[in-house]
Structure formats: C-alpha cells, structure tokens
Write a structure and sequence with these properties.
The structure is a single chain. By secondary structure, the protein is α+β, with helices and mostly antiparallel strands. The chain has a six-stranded mixed β-sheet with strand order 7-6-1-3-2-8, with helices on one face. It has a two-stranded antiparallel sheet with strand order 4-5. Helix 4 packs across helix 5. The longest helix is centred in the first third of the chain and has 21 residues. Helices cover 36% and strands 21% of the residues. The chain has one domain: Peptide methionine sulphoxide reductase MsrA (Peptide Methionine Sulfoxide Reductase, Chain A). Strand 4 and strand 5 form a beta hairpin.
C-alpha cells in the first residue's frame, strides 16, 4: 500500500514538473560570436537556458570546425529556452538588439563572415511581426538595421567546449556589450 502511494506521489510530481516545462518556449538569435550572445541572454529573468549552436545551413550536425573552415551556410546561433509568463519574446528580442551591433553588415566586431551575421530566427508569424516591429522602431530612431529575419530551422548545438564559454573561462565578451536603445 505504501509503495502505491509513493508511486502515485512521484507520478504527480513528475506530471507537475512536466506541465511547467510545457509552458517554456524557445527563441533563436544570432549576433556574431555565440559566446557573447549566450553570456548576455542567460542572465535575463525568465530565461531557463541558453545553448550555443548553429542554424540556417545545409549540412546536418555540423561541427564548429566545419562551420568555420568550410561553407556550410550555418550561422552561429543561440537557442534560448524561456518562460513566457516571466519574460516575453518581445523583451528578449529587445535585449538581443541591445547587446550587439545590429547595424554592422557582414559580421560582428572583429568576427567577419556570414556565420557571424545578425539574425532573428522566428518560429511563427507572431514572432516575425514582433521582430519586424522592433526593427521598424530602430529604423525610426535613425538606425540602419542589418539584422535579418528568417524562419527558424533545425538547431544544432555546438560541442560542450562552446557552452558557457565566458563563465567557464572567467572572461567577459570582447565584442558584445549592453547599450540601451529602446
């Protein structure tokens, strides 16, 4: 009898934990070297995790070396898992624009090349509209926005070495810094 009660309690706990995870959403941003984007997004309240990786290319399961030394078409991207009850996609996207130079064409800071370009990869029409609205706001403020909008595709996490890079190495990003623009 005690075992049945314990099993019932464990299944209820698992059910509630799973229900919480169901409400989490994913957002995808590319703003140059993924280490800096990851560093600045993971400290936002409501963000559960940020994973560095790749999106937008044509090769399945690319390695970092393949993305860097061959033309796989991938962009260094972060996958942000967040709770939309705590932080909205719009607030995340605003913060993304405030942590990198969204006006730079062809890369970010000293990191040059298509894999370092600025993108918001949207999951649906709602995210697309929000990102476009923010780009329009920036344009009204006089900025020439280089950030591209593209439908999200398969995300490939980078290897462990690239996850939480600045935290593990006790360094700060060299080409990402917060600058209020909204």
């Amino acid at each position: 009898m005690k075992i049945k009660k314990i099993l019932l309690m464990l299944s209820l706990v698992s059910m509630f934990a799973f229900a919480e995870d169901i409400n989490l959403q994913k957002a995808y941003f590319a703003g140059g070297c993924f280490w800096g984007v990851e560093y600045h997004l993971e400290d936002q309240k409501g963000v559960k995790s940020v994973v560095s990786g790749f999106m937008g290319g044509f090769k399945k399961n690319p390695t970092y070396k393949e993305v860097v030394y061959t033309r796989t078409g991938h962009i260094e991207t972060v996958e942000v898992v967040y709770d939309p009850k705590i932080i909205s996609f719009e607030k995340l996207t605003k913060h993304f624009f405030e942590i990198h130079d969204f006006t730079q064409v062809g890369g970010q800071g000293p990191d040059i090349g298509e894999r370092y370009e600025s993108y918001v990869f949207y999951n649906d029409k709602s995210e697309q509209k929000i990102a476009q609205k923010l780009i329009n706001l920036l344009a009204k403020k006089g900025y020439k926005v280089a950030t591209k909008l593209q439908k999200s595709s398969k995300f490939y996490p980078a290897d462990r070495y690239h996850q939480d890079y600045y935290v593990k190495h006790k360094k700060a990003p060299y080409c990402h810094a917060y600058k209020k623009v909204f």
